[in-house]
Amino acid sequence: MESLTSRMQAVQTPIIPVVGELITNSPGTISLGQGVVSYNPPPQAQEFLAKFLAEPTNNLYKAVEGIPPLIAALAAKLQAFNGIEINQNNCIVVTAGSNMGFMNAILAITSPGDEIILNKPYYFNHEMAIAMAGCRPVLVDTDENYQLRPDAIAQAITPKTRAVVTISPNNPTGVVYSEAALRQVNQLCGDRGIYHISDEAYEYFTYNGVKHISPAAFANSSDYTISLYSLSKAYGFASWRIGYMVIPQHLLVPVKKVQDTILICAPVISQYAALGALQAKEEYLKENIGAISQVREVVIESLNHLQGLCTITPADGAFYFFLKVHTQMNAFELVKKLIQEHQVAVIPGTTFGMEDGCYLRVAYGALQQETVKTGMERLVQGLQTILGN
Which of 47, 125, 151, 366 is the most buried (most CB within 10 A)? Predict the structure, then answer.
């Protein structure tokens, strides 16, 4: 069995558990690593669990695409917040997180050997899913501010291309793509007969008056736009595992084949909790994301002390900054030193496909102001010490 080989050998090892083990071995480490929020779901999520428990048939399998009340609530949210109308041309499928939505989409639209265009730096689970499906990720560089380059994306399209993936607000960079660029990419996909997969897990996390844009809201785009959403971030729902996808109607049968095989349906108890969470007033999101915005200001102030040691690209979304460190040191070795010698954890840029230098992702959504202040002080001092400044 030692010689056993499989497709999984070509798939990178997820970095979060690796960094997590390093943190465990260095007690007291402050993590600026994992992309989660510090707050809990709204109380309505827990209140709706009683509705689940009151109906004995809820212990049975439910519809693959999701329970009707949740589908209806999501349709209302999509219309109100995203400007997306659910009609005869598109539909909603509730998934066990948006990562599952991405896997569903890739398996539904590709055959082995097909190509999917990812913009660098990419989200590592996207690259992993493409590899698992026996497809090839085609990597396209973003510009110096990590913004899309539609002309470069156009040049990367081949007869084997099945989709272009965009993430806005972006993980790992925190940038928000411009409406003009998203329109260009979406139009390009329509003209070339390929799909536009739009990952919008961080849709509510925008700052400085920047507005979130959903490509599926563009006119005549519903036949080729696949949109991915998550309750994990905005509603503090990470372990409940509820996401959803908006897909062209013609993809419903293949997507249901994938989901029925892997999952059948998203956990029904979690779907009820999600239905409850969506009842929360706007103040819930406003207050919690407002608190993260204040944490973000602490991070920005600390990052200013790294001018000269790092290139820090402005970011108006999500809860990340992506640093280019001016060193020849391997990014993972730098991460290990920061954890073991300075008790602060970040994520190496290599896991996001950035091999041409030393990059670090700094995540701040999970921490309160005082903790993030201490964590950032350790990061600044650590980098100054390690890099000899």
Answer: 366
